Amino acid sequence: MNLRERLTVLRDVVFARTSRLDWLPLLLVRLCLAAIFIPSGWGKLHDLAKVTDFFSELGIPLPHLNAVVVAVSELACGVALLVGAVSRLAAIPLIVSMTIAILTARRADIHGVADLFALDELIYLALAVVVLVLGAGAISADGLIARRFSSPRAASTQTPKGDRS
């Protein structure tokens, strides 16, 4: 066996073993987002006056209403992501919230592209976009429901894994 054939065999073995873990990245993304947004939403709910004052300083309209909306959406969407229920829908308010945070609270910290990409809020936004586009993954309430209620015919007509053409 020459070097090229050995590398091909090695690649196939590595791919076969790692493809069994295709559920892991989306689970980790959801758990990381939940670990951020559940305590953040909980904290905001328990100190709405402080959040309202901060939103007032930023010039956000209807600061108290928006403080309540952000607190509840962070907590509720964080819990939804934790269990993987309605994950795509749960990602939307978080994307909006992080976009507004970048444009208001963090705007003064951005002096260039490197500063933008160093923001935690942009990382959270990007992870939420991943959930919005790819869904919750196999290890989730959404995945369980999909497996439970998908018809055998629908499963047989789906595109094979790895083939997204």
Search tags:
165 residues; mainly alpha; 9 helices; 74% helix; flat; disordered C terminus
**What profile does the largest beta sheet have?**
none
H/E element order: HHHHHHHHH
Rg, nearest Å: 21 Å
Strand content: under 5%
Mean pLDDT: 90
Structural category is: mainly alpha
- The number of helical elements comes to 9
List the helices and strands and how they pair.
Elements: H1 3-18, H2 24-45, H3 48-58, H4 63-83, H5 87-103, H6 113-117, H7 120-134, H8 141-149, H9 152-157
Provide structural commentary:
- The chain is an all-alpha fold.
- The protein has one domain (23-139).
- 74% of the residues lie in helices and 0% in strands.
- Helix 2 packs antiparallel against helix 4 (63-83).
- The protein is flat, with a radius of gyration of 21 Å.
